[in-house]
């Protein structure tokens, strides 16, 4: 049973409809930034439940999806070298690089290990003392602290055969770049709850201040998402724009001080390449000089310099991450591109918009 079947007549839906009436029936395009939001909205049928003037579009909040092709190709290239073990979260296994993937390379004999935490990769390096263990540091502010702890532990314990291929990214910079481009007119943003537990709800103040767009920080249950939609529509009907936190059971207004101190100790801001968005200044992090010996991009710089740039692709994942195309508008969707044969990360990631649409929204 979909959420829409069970909760069709609840008060919150009537509140949303009333807000739309106050707006005179004008359409409202709301971007769910987080990939977990995208999957939840599809799984529980929220697009069917919401009144037609409300349109949900996906944004650049799937960390697997926004990982640049050149970064993935570089990590894959390391796995072709003897004596190197690649350690990664499982959701990266089937993401297609240029002509291959971690899953395919593992089938061909490459040493590819799935870990559940960065510290597991440190433990693996302790066990594989004759090999180099490289962990793929992917994700937003939510997963960065765990990578930072792994680097601290490796340095303190002198686990010299461990390093991190760091492609972590920070969310506010991407949202600023997306809104500045103006490709898609967004009425409001549903901001990610997990990320915001680290950076605090106040980190999105620039969105309402500089762009006049209301935001709602929300959780991942259906009611959380509907509360976020109602918050945005209420702000629009009242002619104001701010950042409302409807996930107060988990998210503070201010950043988590311990997490911020940890990240500042290990990482420094850096430019980052995002799939679909290109290079965004200051939207990523690099490993600080203190931990440079555990920086895979530095350790293997000569090898990585030989990796060719990726060729053009027919995959529309970049357009989908920017919200300018819906998954089912892609001519490859459910045809040449499917979960069993993905052409891009949006179809294979557990938070990908194409994977959500394929699983829950196909006619």
Describe what you observe in this structure.
With 363 residues, this protein is α/β, with parallel strands linked by helices. It has two domains: 133 residues, HypD, alpha/beta domain 1 (Rossmann fold, 3-Layer(aba) Sandwich); 156 residues, HypD, alpha/beta domain 2 (Rossmann fold, 3-Layer(aba) Sandwich). A five-stranded parallel sheet has the order 2-1-7-8-9. It has a four-stranded parallel sheet with strand order 4-3-5-6, with helices on both faces. Strands 10-11 form a two-stranded antiparallel sheet. Helix 13 links the parallel strand 8 and strand 9. Helix 2 runs parallel beside helix 13, helix 3 packs parallel to helix 19 and helix 9 packs across helix 14. The longest helix is centred in the middle third of the chain and has 16 residues. The N terminus is likely disordered.
């Amino acid at each position: 049973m979909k959420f829409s079947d069970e909760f069709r007549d609840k008060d919150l839906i009537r509140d949303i409809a009333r807000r739309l009436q106050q707006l005179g029936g004008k359409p409202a395009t709301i971007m769910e930034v987080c990939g977990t939001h995208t999957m939840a909205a599809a799984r529980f049928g929220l697009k069917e439940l919401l009144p037609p003037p409300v349109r949900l579009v996906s944004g650049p909040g799937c960390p697997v999806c926004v990982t640049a092709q050149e970064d993935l190709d570089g990590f894959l290239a390391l796995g072709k070298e003897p004596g190197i073990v690649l350690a990664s979260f499982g959701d990266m296994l089937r993401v297609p690089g240029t002509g291959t993937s971690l899953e395919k390379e593992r089938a061909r004999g490459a040493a590819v290990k799935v870990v559940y935490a960065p510290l597991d990769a440190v433990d693996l390096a302790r066990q594989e003392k004759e090999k180099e263990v490289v962990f793929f540091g992917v994700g937003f502010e939510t997963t960065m602290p765990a990578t930072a702890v792994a680097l601290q532990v490796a340095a303190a314990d002198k686990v010299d055969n461990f390093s991190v291929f760091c492609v972590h990214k920070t969310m506010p910079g991407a949202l600023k770049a997306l809104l500045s481009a103006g490709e898609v007119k967004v009425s409001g943003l549903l901001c990610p709850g997990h990320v915001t537990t680290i950076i605090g709800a106040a980190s999105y103040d620039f969105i309402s201040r500089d762009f006049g767009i209301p935001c709602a920080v929300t959780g991942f249950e259906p009611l959380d998402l509907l509360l976020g939609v109602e918050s945005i529509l209420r702000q629009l009907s009242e002619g104001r724009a701010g950042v409302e936190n409807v996930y107060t059971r988990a998210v503070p207004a201010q950043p988590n001080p311990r997490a911020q101190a940890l990240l500042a100790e290990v990482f420094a801001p850096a430019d980052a390449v995002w799939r679909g968005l290109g290079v965004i200044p200051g939207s990523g992090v690099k490993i600080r000089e203190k931990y440079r010996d555990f920086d895979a991009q530095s350790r293997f710089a000569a090898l990585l310099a030989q990796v060719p740039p990726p060729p053009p692709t027919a995959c529309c994942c970049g357009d989908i991450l920017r919200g300018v195309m819906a998954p089912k508008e892609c001519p490859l969707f459910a045809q040449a591109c499917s979960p069993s044969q993905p052409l891009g990360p949006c179809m294979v990631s557990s938070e990908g918009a194409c994977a959500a649409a394929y699983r829950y929204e196909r006619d």
